[in-house]
Design goal:
Two copies of one chain form a homodimer.
Chain A: E1 2-7, E2 14-20, E3 23-27, E4 29-31, H1 44-49, E5 55-58, H2 59-64, H3 68-74, H4 77-81, E6 87-90, H5 93-98, E7 101-106, E8 109-113, E9 120-123, H6 125-135, E10 139-141, H7 153-173, E11 183-188, H8 194-206, E12 211-214, H9 223-233, E13 242-245, H10 251-259, E14 264-266, H11 269-274, E15 278-281, E16 284-287, H12 307-311, H13 314-322, H14 326-353, H15 356-366, H16 371-382
Parallel strand pairs in A: 4-14, 5-6, 6-10, 10-11, 11-12, 12-13, 13-14
Antiparallel strand pairs in A: 1-2, 2-3, 7-8, 8-9, 15-16
Helix pairs in contact in A: 6-7, 7-8, 10-15, 13-14, 14-15
Chain lengths: 383, 383
């Protein structure tokens, strides 16, 4: 179902195409995140107009609210939220290990208390696959264990063992996907341990999943460790399957990961920071609420073709953000998401033209990383 | 600038047309409220697509944030918020008397403390007209004194005296408007006192304003008193000028007021209640968050042509509202505003066809008022 169209001559970047029951999408691709059946602040028309090819939904959240009965009655997630294009659903593994209170890891899954009302719930490979079957996503993810980046070695090893065992249980419950139905992606864990990453990747590949995700990234690790985790995993992944780096990243990080052979991305960053008034551009991010933009009548980003930049000034959006008008965070969410999608479209065009390496170099040179990323890099140098 | 096209044979309803520097609008008209230079949760494209002819902005709020310097630098309110069609601005009188802390009424205006930071400010006829000149609205309102509905008779009388004096000061500072520039509307006060209403109306009409508003309504009074205030005022207003009932009302109330000779309306109700999950229909309002809509896959209102009803179900919107997704309140705001605008379009068509009286009777018979309105009516009966 994944077609590798071209591999870059100078980097590991790949141009590809993935076919699903709800249509084809091209890679590299960015998937806006619709955790609770809505990409925060945006509507489906806006998403389509921006060229969104596929969005992400969350098993953990959707299972809690509105609950499976409602989505089943609606005829699946696509119909429930009125989104006709592909959807990938996360398995809930990440959320169980990050959001849920008081959890108890068992043989066939995790017993935990809901982060909403404390009710006792159980999620494991069998349950996660069944929920995703009802959601009717085009790509389901296996149920994995995702430890924090600073988990001790023993815990990382146990997590890999469980992740492999649970992946097998997921695969057994859904052997197909080749008939235009739901595809299933495996998730490689292993932290920054080369042996664990290799072990996990090899075991999953033997199960012949429809694609492979690199998990255990975007869990609080410094940027350098994140790149390392990707580099430790990618060489083992088969060229003819899609590779997905979960929960990443900034525009510059996505380019770095594309150059390292990654095809698919999802990230809450563009919409999350927008709600705090942070606009993301090709030169880096900036806080629109600052007094400096009070009478700045330029668009968020010169040359940007998004609805926000074509219609509104920084001065106006700054005002809206400062007086808590919803249109402010809507428009910054829209701009940021548009930037991510347009960047991926540009990358695909550069790959097709054989000019990706130059584009990549220039983009990184012009992008000013956030202070958080910069200070992490500084700590790395000082070590 | 106002053309009276037709008067209904059975009621006092009127079909009209008002020309401004930013185009013509037809009456009866509903003006969505953009207090802080944004109709809450909606964007200008959505407003245009729904057939919004004119919106309202607020002198008091815009003068505080973003401040006049910013709007002047932007080239006026239309350009600041990217709205090309007509704008009416309220004078700030209502807000000074309802929002501001610690106020001191003086000869030429009101000294008050900002409801935001407590800073000492002064707003009077001269200031309000100057601010509205800079905002560049198509219709400016005079600076009036708007007492609460239960203010003692003496206070109502003083308010009318000041309102007349301040209206004259406003008129003197802006004698024109007849050249396609900013028009100025007078505001009739006087509570539910027939003599005061008449005195105020006659005095204002002698000043020959471009239109007349009925103020001192939507200030907490029971519905019956509101109708009375309109009925006490309308007979004195000239037929060839537009009449505007400020801050009103529910769909049924607007129809009642149209039948009593009112041409223009503004109200925060459709967007304010939307943010609490209340949808307004032609049969009354209902709270979408209720469990009864959990698996209700009908649109908010059958037959409605708004973007929300064409794209989403009650079940989906209920879910979004309950998990605090912005798309939920966006879509209910959109539906409610669309309903108000479409209702006015229907009223105009009925007036043109000479069938308004039947439409009006049927609409009122089918509309279930809110519990608040119903219990106020009950109290009236019991008195």
């Amino acid at each position: 179902m994944f077609e590798l169209l071209k591999t870059d001559a100078h980097t590991k970047a790949r141009l590809g195409r993935l076919s699903t029951g709800h249509g084809v999408f091209e890679t590299p691709v960015f998937m806006p995140v619709g955790t609770q059946a809505s990409v925060k602040a945006l509507d489906p028309r806006e998403l389509r107009d921006m060229g969104t090819q596929i969005i992400l939904g969350n098993t953990y959240h959707l299972n809690l609210r509105p609950g499976l009965d409602v989505i089943r009655a609606a005829g699946g997630l696509h119909r429930f939220m009125n989104w006709e294009r592909p959807i990938l659903t996360d398995s809930g593994g990440f959320q169980v290990f990050s959001l849920a209170k008081i959890r108890k890891v068992k043989e066939h899954g995790v017993e935990f208390r809901s982060h909403l009302d404390g009710s006792l719930l159980f999620l494991g490979p069998k349950e996660a696959m069944e929920i995703q079957r009802v959601l009717g996503s085009d790509i389901a993810m296996v149920f994995d264990e995702c430890p924090p980046h600073d988990a001790p070695a023993r815990e990382q090893k146990l997590a890999v063992e469980r992740t492999i065992r649970w992946a097998r249980e997921c695969r057994e419950s859904r052997p197909g996907g080749r008939d235009g139905g739901q595809q299933v992606f495996g998730i490689v864990q292993g932290g920054s341990n080369p042996a664990l990453r290799e072990e996990c990747a090899r075991a999953l590949i033997a199960m012949d999943f429809d694609g492979y995700a690199i998990g255990g990234v975007s869990v609080g690790e410094p940027e350098a460790e994140m790149f390392k985790a990707i580099e430790l995993t990618e060489p083992f992944l088969p060229a003819h399957k899609a590779r997905y780096a979960m929960g990443l990243g900034t525009p510059a990080q996505m380019l770095e990961l594309i150059a390292r052979g990654v095809d698919m991305f999802d990230c809450v960053l563009p919409t999350r920071v927008a709600r705090n008034g942070t606009a993301i551009t090709r030169r880096g991010a900036f806080g629109l609420k600052g007094g400096g933009y009070k009478a700045d009548f330029r668009p968020i980003e010169e040359g940007c073709e998004c609805f926000a930049c074509k219609n509104f000034t920084r001065a106006y959006l700054r005002h809206l953000l400062n007086v808590n008008e919803i249109l402010g965070l809507r428009m910054v969410s829209l701009h940021n998401t548009h930037l991510y999608l347009k960047l991926m479209a540009d990358v695909r065009a550069q790959l097709a033209a054989g000019t990706f390496a130059d584009f990549y170099r220039e983009f990184i040179a012009n992008y000013v990383p956030s202070r958080k990323v910069l200070s992490a890099r500084q700590r790395e140098i000082e070590r």
